[in-house]
Write a structure and sequence with these properties.
This protein is an alpha+beta fold. Helices cover about 25% and strands about 20% of the residues. The protein folds into 2 domains: about 70 residues, no CATH class; about 90 residues, no CATH class. The protein is built from 4 helices and 10 strands, in the order E-E-E-E-E-E-E-E-H-E-H-H-E-H. Strand 7 and strand 8 form a beta hairpin. It binds zinc ion (3 copies).
Length: about 160
């Protein structure tokens, strides 16, 4: 008899027993996975954004989540990551609708309602924005679930070209 609920040892997030890794934090549940960049290195975890297995050299842990070097600078809140920021509310709404029409699940956050402001300083916020005292205060952020970041960025890049 299998229990219905499985929890990740690392983050206590809910996981499916079929999962090879935790979708919340990137902890690996199986052995014998190689790093995607260093073929003879064992992977220590999975980047929660791109799903690439990473060895200890490639992997970083930010707020309890594993990220590869390409995705280290993202602002992440719970299972959402920022893919776009603008001070133009209408533009942010427009892009959110656009992503929804493409089947993604975007959320809008502004600094005022951003849960970051309740939880203290998150250094990823500073790094992603460059200057903290500038535009970031009024920024509308488009956040998407971690696994949708790659797709959302492709769509936004295509959109900006048009
Ligand atoms: Zn986890
Ligand atoms: Zn990555
Ligand atoms: Zn590596």
């Amino acid at each position: 008899m299998d229990s219905e609920n499985f929890y990740c040892d690392k983050c206590s997030g809910n996981v499916d027993k079929k999962d090879d890794y935790c979708p919340h934090c990137g902890a690996l549940f199986i052995d014998g996975i190689g790093c995607s960049r260093h073929k003879n290195m064992q992977a220590d975890g999975i980047c929660v954004i791109c799903g690439e297995p990473c060895c200890a050299d490639c992997l970083s842990e930010v707020n309890g989540r594993y990220l590869c070097s390409n995705h280290l600078d993202y602002e992440i809140y719970e299972d959402l990551a920022r893919v776009y920021g603008t001070s133009d509310v209408n533009h942010a709404e427009y892009l959110k609708n656009f992503l929804e029409c493409e089947g993604l699940h975007p959320f809008l956050y502004s600094r005022k309602t951003n849960p970051y402001s309740l939880g203290g300083i998150d250094y990823t916020l500073f790094r992603a924005a460059g200057d903290y005292d500038g535009h970031i205060i009024n920024e509308m952020k488009i956040m998407v679930p971690l696994q949708e970041v790659t797709r959302a960025e492709e769509l936004l890049t295509e959109f900006e070209k048009e």
